[in-house]
Amino acid sequence: MSGTLDWSRRAFGLAAMGAAMAPALAARAEAAPLAAGLVDDVRRRFDVPGIAVALVEQGRPVLASGFGVRGLTDPRPVDAHTVFPIASNTKAFTSALLATLVDEGKLGWDGHVVDYLPGFQMWDEWVTREMTVRDLLVHRSGLGLGEGDLMLFPKTTFTPKELVAHLRWLKPKTSFRSTYAYDNVLYEAVAVLVEAVTGQSWSDALRQRILGPVGMTDAVIGESAFFAAPDHALPHAKIDASDRGAGKLSVLTTTNVGDVLLSAGGLAASAADLSRWLMTQVNGGLAPDGKRVFTEAQGAQMWKPQTLIPPSDIGAAGWPQPQYRAYALGWEVADIDGLMMVRHGGYVQGFKSYTVVIPSQKTGFVVLTNAEEGYGISAIALSLLDHYQGRPARDRVSQLLAARDADRAETLAAGAGIPRDPGARPTLQLSAYAGVYRDAWYGTTTLTMRDGGLWMRFDRTPGMEGPLEPWRYDTFRTRWKLPGVEDAFVTFALTPEGGVRDMTMRAVSPLADFSFDYQDLLFRPAAAG
Amino acid sequence: MRPDLLKRAVAALAGAVLAAAALPALAAPPPDLHAYVEALRTQYGIPGMAVAVVEHGQTSFQSGFGVRKLGSPEPVDVKTIFPTGSTGKAFTTAALATLVDAGKLGWDDRVVDRLPGFQMYDPWVTREMTIRDLLVHRSGLGLGEGDLLFAPSSDYTRAETVRKLRFLKPATSFRSGYAYDNVLYAVAGQLIEAVTGQTWEDYVREHVLKPARMNDTTSDHAHRFADPDRAWPHARIDGPMRGLGTQVVLGERDGLGTNVSPAGGVSASAEDMAQWLKIQLAHGAVPGGGRLFSEASSAAMWKPETIIPTNPAPAPVTAASSQYESYALGWFVRDYRGHQIITHDGADLGFRATVVLIPEKDVGFAILSNAEDGVPLVATMYHLMDYYLGLPQIDWAKAWGEYKTRQVAGAMAALKAQTGAPAKVGPSLPLAAYAGEYRDPWYGPISIKPQDGKLTIDFEHSPGMVGELAHFQYDTFITRWKDTGIEPAYVTFALTPDGKVASAKLKPVSPLADFSFDYQDLALTPVHAGGGQ
Description:
The complex is a heterodimer of chains A (529) and B (533). Chain A has 529 residues and is α+β, with helices and mostly antiparallel strands.
């Protein structure tokens, strides 16, 4: 607790009112610019139990505070030390960890991965040879959006080394370095690379090289450690209706992150921690207590655009379309009205978060939440940016609520559901579909008969098992036992002889997170014997 | 070809500076624009310039300045054509866009599928390279690599130039970074010919310039040289390095080779450039009706494809810094003080051009000149951007002038440090021992011959690249090209243990040499072992 910020909510409220009344420019340097009640307004109207905010202005801490409760079943208040999973905001920590190794001359951003990680292999041997450390971090490998994520989420029995060994089976979707497509698996490969270079696990190296020097004393790594933390938020989502996000908010029992594959999104931290992290970032690698975590040169490297993100890519929820948007090393770079900022979002089941840094103002903030309301986070972020960019304050909460509902309706309309055929009769007897199936990169799935129906189990994913419901033709639908795991259609193709040739899948909901990359699987019956 | 009398009549009008005064309904360009440009032109000794400004679909300013050719009285008017250098890349991408719109090709088609026989150094790159890759400077070729195939002009055909790509060794891994090239635009030109059966020149004339109603503009040299209302090239080549010394007229047929014209072989007038700006700002719609390319193609051509690393501009031009810069299809896309601009500059031997589009203001302008001094163009460009974006005005003429002074001083110091006091050592061998036939894998034959007790070097496919090799120090010589407009190069020989020439490497002498003089990409080896006679 010592050495961290701990503004009380009362103090914050006063500062916020001061800011609201002061002219924008005068307020910029000193006062917290959140309009009084904004965060609670977002909590109430977006149905978010708890929010924590860290805010750094001109390199100095201004705010690290909590709002609301840790969970629907834990009414204790969220405070500056309540930890939240920060999900993909972890990627910036992984690249900062690499930056410390670059500073020490232990690796180069443009070094070839195969030189540091013997045995590293992608589908294409030319890509294997040419892929650099930088390529691992910037989503231009040719893998599709979220390709291979089912090796990670929901938590699996894969080890990092196994995951790296399976990369060679992930078929590229586009030509190497031709296209931006966000991935997680290559960030997991970084963990193995770090271990190969330092002899330390990614977690140990992160603690020693980043979390310790920055002074992030609340931070924990992995799901078990998160739930064991004395002051942690609980995950929430709306999953009782047909599409995620509708229905009633409930507390979930897992984030699906697990304890093993963590370098793409496995860190959890508090607002107090992230205030120190923001200070380190805006001050070019200098931690609040004066320790140098990484050099200014590496700080600049990590914010240097590497892969252009096309306008067609879904950006931050409800943000205006930037002139320019690119991925850097664990960060996105984008402008609003010509002002460049560095940003990243994070999402794991039950938690969304967002980080924004305005390098030219040495200002930044993190918003942590224990629900899945990205537009709610944007209401806070855009209100802050209105202030920092000198725009008149406006009702961002109402605007983003409307944007959320409109976008959701549009997505659902575009991906109109496939109705169940009440008289669905699969071609073969149900037992003929049973057996062990194998996909090149994921591994095996076992289909058995249970209570007169088919039962599917993803053998590497403890949460993914349940009955298969006949849907239409030779397509079935999963009913996973673990709440929160997106369901999928399962389609069998037959051979001329009437055997099963292969089994393919796709997510049922058009709103399903891209990490449920069912469409990348191609299961074939495993050889008998 | 063109109705020259009509041009004269219009020129007379232009001479009266029609601009804002003549067309009062239009938005107003800066009232002092004519005086601003003219002051810069005279201060920097540029023989002739032409400027066109378009606002909301209307020409709000167009004017010629000075003369077409030093020593001749004919004034530059709005119909005087100037080679526009690399601003012509956007004409090649517009030509491709017409084919994309017609469903005849796609930006992401593989080049090998459209241009049989196309081959890069690396077979994987050969297989993966798309039409888009040809246009966005991320192929792995180094900056200006291969440009000696057309700068200065050579007798290599476009097809031969494309065939030589397989010998150009990549400087970086495919698509890993940005490095401006020209030779891949020659591939785009050949590809147009393969798909349409028309040369790049003919296709651009019939399917871009004609439907655009750019009646003065031409894509080929024969038309350019047949037009009496054309600007002549000028440069300063009698000083310690190109750009310093007296402004002189260059031989107008000693320019860049037409083999790489798809990278910048369009000659245009100010009036036509205004038309081009209108079409660009209207996303393909031609004023008065018709469409040159679709909205979708317009968006594709302006969509950033390759990141260009940015660094803050040095004082005193710090305000010119961009927060981001990228290359699209024949265009640079960047910001200026937070506002997006679409732009390109162009350089031909003896000419400079700049094109700027400000889509958010529906404004564009083009600046053409018949000399190589860049300050008048860049100062006018920033002056106009400040004006149209409503930004605080900066004295860009002063700032860029100071920048140029510092740049030249730095280059002079570097040149002096390099060449000031050569070691009085060498050459290691008798001169005749350096003579012989040499070959570079991509350029081809280069011969070195003894002549009157001296050595001469001859780039056999480049008419102007022949001249004396003067000893500098050790085993390094300096070229003294007959065509003094060509940048001199160091030629350094490496010897075998038994005292024969193993190889020779080249490097430009001037620190300010244009990157198209890519001497450093050459690796000469003797055709006959030993390199002697």
